[in-house]
Amino acid sequence: MEQTQHSPIIIAIDGFSSSGKSTMARRLAATVGYRYLDTGAMYRAVTLYALDHGLFLPDSTPDTSAIIAALPSIHIDFAVQPDGTQHTLLNGKDVEAEIRRLRVSEAVSPVAAIAEVRHAMVAKQQELGRDKGIVVDGRDIGTVVFPDAELKIYVDASAETRARRRFKEMVEKGAAVNYEEVLANVVHRDHIDSTRAESPLRRADDAIALDNSEMTLEEQDAWLLEQFRRAAGL
Q1: How confident is the model at residue 92 (pLDDT cuts 50, 70, 90)?
Q2: d(C-alpha 49, C-alpha 45), whole Å
Q3: Burial code of 148-187, b = ≥16 C-beta within 10 A, e = fewer?
């Protein structure tokens, strides 16, 4: 862990699904002693609630009005585990495994596109980042949630590279999926995330771009740590 004293900053990492931003953010937070906030998990938790409570229409699209009405009943928090990882809690229940399944992945983008859902999640995220010293990843962190973040990173990789990563991760967790399904999901989510009316995914003007298609985890870590040191004045 970095021991040098500095004024805490906010690090915003944005990018498409399965671009590796969450892994980068978690590892950087552990290295520099910051809190990690996975905003994607928050939208996945809302989606899981909607799926489990029948808040989807017969054509599998979200029932927007029903989801908006349910928002006051959806409470999301995070719990640090003994091994240092962080699990998502939905109304007090650990749902970390459930929110990573393809069932949720296939439904999360249209739920996350609902303006009222985004407003509720952004307010929670800004509350959690009030004291800085936090690494946050998502789709609109550097543009909407923390536009004044001291360090903004925009991560990208080809859809095929991201689908391979996601497929490998899901297989390792025991999910019964095939690569074509995962690739189709990645491409579909890319389209929704970049074209939605509310807070679409885009690179902030002052974000540093990173294409990590050919980088190892160690190379990513070293690159990101260097960006952190510069932004923190170390």
Answers
A1: very high
A2: 6
A3: ebbbbbbbbbebebbbbbbbeebeeeeeebeeebbbebbe
Quickly count: other Cβ atoms within 10 Å of residue 62's Cβ: 24
Which secondary structure element, helix H or strand E, spans residue 219, and what is its range?
A: helix 217-232
Q: Quick one: tokens of 20?
A: 């590796």
Q: How many CB atoms lie within 10 A of CB 53?
A: 14
What's the per-residue H, E or C state across 161-214?
A: HHHHHHHHHHHHCCCCCCHHHHHHHHHHHHHHHHHCCCCCCCCCCCCEEEECCC
pLDDT at 229: 95
Work out the number of other CB atoms within 10 angstroms of the CB of residue 75: 12
* pLDDT band for position 51 (cuts 50, 70, 90): very high
pTM score of the predicted model = 0.79
Q: Kind and range of the H or E element at 64? A: helix 64-70
pLDDT bucket at 3, cuts 50 / 70 / 90: very low
Please write the tens of the pLDDT for every residue from 141-169.
999 999 999 999 999 888 999 999 889 88
Instruction: Report residue 3 CA to chain centroid gap.
Output: 27
Query: From the centroid of its chain, how far is CA 144?
Result: 14
